[in-house]
Amino acid sequence: MQDLSHIKIIFSDIDGTLLPFTGKDLRPTARLIRELLEAGILFVPCTGRGTGNIPKEILQVPGLRYAVTANGALVTDLTNGQVLWKRMVSRELAGKLTRFLRKYDGNAYLYRHGEHHLDVALGEKPFDTSNKSLVAWRDSVVKCDFLKLLEEAESEWIDKMGFASIDPHQFERILQDVPREEFFDELLITTSGDWNIEINAAGASKGDAALWLAKELGFGPEDMLCAGDNMNDLSMLLAGGISVAPENALPAVKEAATVVVPDCKEDGVENFLRKLL
What we know:
Layout: E1 9-12, H1 27-38, E2 42-45, H2 56-59, E3 66-69, E4 74-77, E5 82-86, E6 89-90, H3 91-101, E7 107-112, E8 115-119, H4 132-139, E9 142-144, H5 146-149, E10 157-158, E11 160-164, H6 168-177, E12 187-190, E13 196-201, H7 206-216, E14 224-227, H8 234-237, E15 242-246, H9 251-256, E16 259-261, H10 268-273
Parallel strand pairs: 1-2, 1-14, 8-9, 14-15, 15-16
Antiparallel strand pairs: 3-4, 4-5, 6-10, 7-8, 7-11, 11-13, 12-13
């Protein structure tokens, strides 16, 4: 049996790890997080979402203090909203990315101050409505023209950008074309599903952010448990002493994990975390 007695802090992805893309009642998840915190084990959501897009059931758990968002672009103290760590996309780079992404068939999106926005200057394209998390995301998104948004004073820095499409060939085209752009070295490109590409500033990753926060709190990698399912989680799983992937995770992620648990739909990660109690 895995020895978990040394674990002091948990960094966990949300979508595909705690929350199936088909959706679920998150109240039992929130109770588990509260019980872990009460037991003295810190829990940190480590997500590609913006702070304003973390499910309220999780965000409102009493005692939850820190969140890693936008794939590691930000570490925030939730008690006062103070940003403790940031690796963000500059306005200039966001403008270049917007013009580049408008050449492809899909939807460019960005996160600014934890809130998500959709570029609809060229029209809104279809989304996969079977993905409940994606539908909820789309229903709450701010629709706008990114080039106009980026003119605003509060757009000096952008959390992250990305591109969503129901046509996977668009991602192949983007990944083939973007290395030829002069700004390519300023980017870190990953994904959190087969419907998107996620674009961060170089130097922003869940793994780097988790290691930084753990060190700030006096913990080492051996004190960390990290859980995730997709490529934007890989750096985090490689950072911690114990790494957990659900059966639905990508093969490369499961290969990097020290523990593979049942599918997210079967609450595999949650049931494993209960062993800490």
